[in-house]
Design a protein that fits this description.
With 677 residues, the chain is α+β, with helices and mostly antiparallel strands. The protein is built from 24 helices and 19 strands. Helix 18 (534-568) packs antiparallel against helix 22 (612-632) and helix 20 (584-592) packs antiparallel against helix 24. The longest helix is centred in the C-terminal third of the chain and has 35 residues, at 534-568. The protein is elongated and about 100 Å long.
Length: 677
């Protein structure tokens, strides 16, 4: 096996191995991008095939007709849509004659992710670790503060990025191949039943760092044939920690699994000689991650202070300097070394979801000889050294004063160093609400909860309310009540107050009362415009519509709130309302092309997870053209109805399309602003 430090080394080794692939390749990941540049430290390929991953794989299967490439990637939730490649399947499979297959894994419960990062080649070689074959991952181990090669496909630079992958052959590679194939089948895809018989050689340009290490594979799996879950990651982490006596070295993107922190703190309390170094990011890479994980990270840190061992553990983040500019290195790796005896590299973070909600795969290697121990110690020293611009020998000579060495390097003002992470805990209400949803200890299983919650009694109640509302709407149109629902009669009542301050207020109150009894809103709009005149009528009708919509939305929210809380939990329900939907355009369309009475739509929207902001903006944009037309162009519209023609109809259709375009623009702005926040 060999440890591949950072993406430039991994991508170069993977490319060389793929060039020798004969029959089957499995790529299992959290994300993948066809424009990922699969190149080494030079930043370019020298084998005559395309640099980019998608074109490279297509050229590979064209060169070797017997080769099949199967790509399985998580069918991500909408939060990540802005970060993912559009139409990845088409970009990988185009012109591949079916020999490159791409599938989005949607088998996991809501709230869970396919997080494994595995590449297997012919059952002979396998790569496992924290690196996905996607953009904004490539970097060399120099982690320069600025690099012209570290740019995404749109030419935008990104910060230094650190991760670790390992490469194995032998039985470990064969078992990883079987795991990848099982994941492919679990996602509903067909695979070749037999393992490839051809063995491909170890790439000549990749050094073999160790041989004959006992290896174990630890998984978190939540979709199992027997319906149970597999928590080998959590169990093996706990076992390794409880065996530690001297030094634990950790690199991890997230630290929020309190159970793991308590196990480690308790072991440090039992063994006074045990020290721990944790390398983690300074900050999380996105707003959602910071809100979801920062509270957990603070609580993770606090466990060691409570146990009285905080002086023997350091939480640090790497920094690269260029002149006066500091660049924090993004730590994405998931690695642990215990007493230079156990080395684990994989996809599992030290957060709750990696322990029980996501699919994960870690490779664990345990020393069986002094030679193996020397190798694992060398991996640890090399990693620390490359963060501090030191050599491995210097780290080895300062083992007894390692923390002091890190302080010396940090104070020297050199080009690279490890600095202490601030352990402050975010106390914002939003972070408190986001964390249970974003970092759950087990799958949310919303479908199962919904099936228990929506009982026959509940469904009968909802249907009864819906039928009653529709019945009232029909009554105003087709019974003797229709005489009351006359625009002229309502206009006459309002006209008595048209020249006083009370006129607009009475009209707005009529909208609110009318909404409660499902009175036809178009009658109220027409009557208000006729009684108060075009411009005052427009403003009053618009205000009345919005206030009536808000009141009914609030009623629906109150009726549906408890069910939402039962389904998601109180805190999760609140965050669900804030981040799900962005349905401005949907509300606009249903307002412009009403498929249900105004009051019914308001109550149903309130009982859903649609944010109030989107509901009111959509109502404003959707109702405005009709109210404005009725207030200002009432006579002209009536004439159009009496003397319809192709030209007038075309003008009306163009006006409708134009307004829909404006509404779509509002939807884009709302979504973009939400993403920025």
């Amino acid at each position: 096996m060999t440890v591949l430090n950072d993406a430039a080394n991994y991508f170069a080794a993977l490319r060389e191995a793929l060039l020798e692939a004969q029959e089957q390749v499995y790529i299992v990941g959290w994300d993948i991008h066809s424009e990922t540049r699969l190149v080494g430290a030079s930043g370019r390929a020298e084998d005559g095939l395309p640099d980019q991953l998608g074109p490279f794989l297509r050229a590979l299967v064209e060169r070797r007709p017997s080769l099949r490439v199967n790509i399985l990637v998580w069918d991500f939730v909408s939060f990540y849509a802005s970060e993912r490649e559009w139409n990845s399947a088409g970009k990988f499979t185009a012109q591949a004659c079916g020999r490159v297959r791409f599938h989005l894994d949607s088998t996991l419960p809501f709230g869970s992710a396919q997080h494994q990062k595995i590449v297997c080649i012919d059952g002979s070689l396998a790569f496992v670790g924290g690196l996905d074959l996607t953009i904004r991952r490539w970097d060399t181990s120099d982690h320069c503060a600025e690099s012209v090669l570290r740019r995404d496909p749109e030419g935008r630079p990104y910060p230094p990025f650190h991760d670790v992958q390992c490469m194995v052959d032998g039985e470990a590679a064969a078992w990883l191949f079987d795991i990848a194939k099982d994941r492919w089948r679990a996602a509903g895809q067909q695979s070749d039943d037999r393992r490839p018989l051809k063995s491909i050689p170890w790439p000549p340009n990749v050094p073999v760092e160790a041989e004959h290490l006992p290896a174990g594979i630890a998984r978190t799996e939540i979709v199992c044939p027997a319906g149970s879950s597999i928590k080998e990651v959590e169990r093996s982490l706990t076992a390794a920690i409880r065996s530690a006596t001297r030094f634990v070295y950790i690199e991890n993107q997230f630290t929020s699994a309190i159970k793991i922190a308590r196990d480690l703190a308790e072991q440090m309390r039992r063994v006074p000689s045990l020290r721990v170094l944790v390398v983690t990011p300074r900050l999380h890479s996105s707003w959602l991650e910071s809100q979801a994980m920062q509270n957990g990270r603070g609580a993770f840190f606090a466990c060691f202070g409570e146990a009285g061992v905080a002086d023997r553990i350091r939480f640090v983040y790497p920094v690269s300097r260029s002149g006066d500019m500091d660049a924090a290195v993004m730590v994405h790796s998931k690695l642990m070394i215990v007493d230079d005896r156990i080395l684990r590299i994989g996809s599992a973070n030290l957060n709750n979801r990696s322990m029980g909600a996501d699919s994960e795969c870690d490779l664990i290697l345990e020393a069986a000889s002094d030679e193996h121990r020397d190798f694992i110690a060398s991996v640890r020293r090399r990693l620390i050294a490359h963060f501090c611009d030191l050599d491995e020998q210097t780290v080895a000579q300062n083992e007894d004063r390692l923390f002091a060495l890190l302080d010396d390097v940090s104070g020297s003002g050199g080009a690279k160093m490890l600095r202490d992470v601030e352990s402050s805990i975010l106390i914002s209400a939003l972070a408190t609400m986001v964390q249970p949803v974003a970092d759950p200890e087990r799958p949310l299983h919303l479908e199962r909860a919904a099936s228990r919650m929506w009982s026959t009694k509940t469904l009968i109640g909802i249907v009864s309310i819906t039928v009653a509302l529709f019945g009232l709407a029909i009554a105003w149109s087709y019974t003797s009540l229709s005489g009351i629902a006359d625009a002229g009669r309502i206009s006459t009542l309002l006209s008595a107050y048209s020249h006083s301050l009370w006129g607009p207020l009475f009209a707005i109150a009529a909208f609110v009362v009318g909404g409660l009894i499902v009175f036809p809103v178009l009658v109220l709009i027409a009557a208000t415009a006729a009684a108060l005149g075009p411009w005052l009528g427009f403003i009053t009708a618009m205000a009345g519509v919005l206030l009536s919509a808000f009141v009914l939305f609030a009623i629906g929210r109150a009726l549906g709130r408890q069910r939402l809380q039962n389904l998601l939990g109180r805190r999760a329900g609140r965050i669900q309302e804030r981040v799900v939907g962005k349905g401005v355009l949907a509300v606009v369309v249903i307002r412009m092309i009403p498929i249900a009475p105004f009051s019914v739509v308001n109550v149903v929207a309130g009982a859903s997870t649609l944010p109030l902001r989107d509901f009111l903006v959509g109502t404003l944009l959707g109702m405005m053209p009709g109210i404005l037309a009725m207030a200002v162009l009432g006579a002209q519209i009536a004439d159009l109805a009496r003397n319809a023609s192709w030209s007038s109809g075309l003008l009306l259709a163009l006006a409708f399309a134009g307004w829909l375009g404006i509404c779509a623009g509002a939807q884009f702005v709302a979504t973009w602003l939400a993403g920025r926040r």
